[in-house]
Amino acid sequence: MKIVQVHNIYQGKTGEEAVLNEEKLVMEENGHEVVQFIKDNSDLDSFSKLERIRMLLSLNASTKIADEFGQLLDTEKPDVCHVHNTFPIITPVVYEVCRSRKIPVVQTLHNYKMICTNSLLFQKGEVCELCINKSLYHSIQYKCYRGSYLATAAQAHVIQHHRNKGTWDNLIDKYICLTEFQKQKLVSGGLPEAKAVVKPNFLTQAGTNIEHGSFFLFVGRLNDSKGLQDLLQLFKHNKTSRFILIGKAEEPAIFKEFRNVDYLGEQERDVVLEHMRKCKAVLFPSKYYEGMPMVILEAFSHQKPVVARNTGAMSSMIEHEFNGLKYDHTQDFLKAVERLDKDEDLVESFGKNALKSYFEKYSKDKGYSNLLNIYSSVLSH
Q1: DSSP-derived pairing of the beta strands 261-263 and 80-85
Q2: CA 285, CA 227: separation in Å to the nearest integer?
Q3: Architecture of the domain defined by 2-114+162-202+364-379
Q4: What is the pLDDT of residue 41?
Q5: Across residues 188-199, what is the average pLDDT?
Q6: Which of 94, 95, 152, 235 could make an S-S bridge to 145, C-beta 3.0–4.6 Å?
Q7: What is the pLDDT of residue 280?
Q8: Could you tell me the fold of the domain covering 215-361?
Q9: How far apart are CA 155 and CA 304, in angstroms?
């Protein structure tokens, strides 16, 4: 089987690229061929003003991308197209190009973009579901996307245009949701339930040479939606534990006042995994629903418990008092970290259970079986 992966990389590293590469690796290891069609939003920095205007005018469907992608399909002749993200450079035109060549399309939904202009169901520091079952133009008044009326309008127009056109209902053969929680939210917002399946993300291998070190690890964007305020409260009240932070921060200077906090900025994945191998536990205080955080899977595969907010994907991935601890209030977050820092036996016990969760739900074998079943189902129709 030959699969073409389609993905538009955001500015700044995300877990979506990790998912893309894990799926490519596992399919190739099992004798399949994977071709990638990738665009990177960092390229926008080199766009001229005219090129930016042209891109904004073609957000619904780029003729340039249609020609380029069509040539790739004609050359490679894939059996299945697996789309991860199309915004903003690739555009949803790829679905039409595939349909014109009778190539079935699988779409992974890493977030809530189909029912929310900022894709997070989150605004002004809180979970937000105001636009579910409404026109996406409803979101413009809230400036949900990058705090801009114009940017929100542009994003809303793309989603609403293709909703009205029937793209989401008719040109995509199967939707992959990452958790049952996410599936139900998307279905309630109009996703065709008959086309939706739940397939967790996976990792191709578990960590080796594991150590239970002395520090807590955070990996991700350091902003309010990812729980930055909880982290800052933790650092202010906990002067004895050690914390290492990896990820992009809008104001990295805020961490300098904490002597027990090391901010490493953005790092390559091998550096992240080396810290994952050595840490005591992983912190995941995200305030929004998430899709399925690869950071949690990486923690589990490295026998590390996770302390996470009890919401969205985390509420089902983290089994309280088994493979980690969940919390509802910041004060409970502080207590959970203090508890793990004082109880090495508990850390080791939770870590063993975390690895068990990995093998039962998120391993390479499980991931390959799930992917193959989905691809086979769209090919049989």
Answers
A1: unpaired
A2: 5
A3: 3-Layer(aba) Sandwich (3.40)
A4: 78
A5: 96
A6: 152
A7: 98
A8: Rossmann fold (3.40.50)
A9: 38
Quick check: 378 and 173 in contact, CB under 8 A? yes
Q: What is the edge-to-edge ordering of all strands in the sheet holding 196-198?
A: 33-40, 2-9, 80-85, 105-108, 174-177, 196-198
Instruction: Enter the tokens of residue 114.
Output: 């189909």
The more confident residue out of 320 and 11 is 320
End-to-end CA distance of the chain: 16
pLDDT of residue 132: 94
What is the pLDDT confidence band of residue 193, given thresholds at 50, 70 and 90? very high
Which residue ranges does the chain devote to CATH 3.40.50.2000? Answer: 2-114+162-202+364-379, 215-361
Both tokens of 316, joined, read 């089902």
Amino acid in the structure at residue 60: N
Percent helix / strand / coil, the chain, rounded to 5: 45, 15, 35
pLDDT tens per residue across span 314-361: 998 999 999 999 999 999 999 999 999 999 999 999 999 999 999 999
Average pLDDT across the chain, whole number: 94
3-state secondary structure of 338: helix
Q: Does the pLDDT of residue 234 top 80, yes or no? A: yes
Q: Where are the alpha helices (DSSP H) in 204-247?
A: 228-237
Backbone angles phi, psi at 290, to 5 degrees: 65, 170
At residue 32, what is the residue type?
H
Smallest CA-to-CA distance from 218 within 230, 204, 208, 206 is with 230
Instruction: Name, in order, each residue with C-beta under 8 angstroms of 64's C-beta and a sequence gap of 6 or more.
Output: 58
Q: How many CB atoms lie within 10 A of CB 66?
A: 17
The DSSP secondary-structure symbol of 227 reads: T
CA 357 – CA 339 distance, rounded (Å): 22
